[in-house]
Description:
alpha/beta
Amino acid sequence: xxxxxxxxxxxxxxxxxxxxxxxxxxxxxxxxxxxxxxxxxxxxxxxxxxxxxxxxxxxxxxxxxxxxxxxxxxxxxxxxxxxxxxxxxxxxxxxxxxxxxxxxxxxxxxxxxxxxxxxxxxxxxxxxxxxxxxxxxxxxxxxxxxxxxxxxxxxxxxxxxxxxxxxxxxxxxxxxxxxxxxxxxxxxxxxxxxxxxxxxxxxxxxxxxxxxxxxxxxxxxxxxxx
Length: 226
């Protein structure tokens, strides 16, 4: 099997040069739960050359309904290592590396990336990701989900700290919205890495209204004031 055979449908979309350019890209996915599972499966088979998966946690039974990278046989295993194993089983043309640690320890390694993807469920850690990304001048894509709702934002110059004014406690969650939002996040990432247009610093908020209609709202995010 050759890369041309494996990535045939993407090559039909944007040509061999763009596909080859992805091989030089390196990304970090912070979190290997629901969003991280979706991102790993979507981007792990896209042609990106190197993917780092960061998560300190292990798999629990209550995770599996929405974390599509895992099976019941994975209970108790490292999330990061299990996701990396799945990526490698599906794509022989990617280097996938597991970092079984907290983000605060991971950032001290001082790796460099073309893009960072937030797949955490923790507001303070997202704040850490934002500060780190700005320090190393690397764009990052935020996503969060709750109940039937979700939001995504490609952060570049905008100030993530506006989220810190809220002490909202998350409620329950459905599996499909996790995959839906993770797929939107992955699409933004892939467009950016492929050199296509991808709007930055705009928050997309998706929810169902009382009539069951899917609503998408867009908000410009405030820029950092120097």
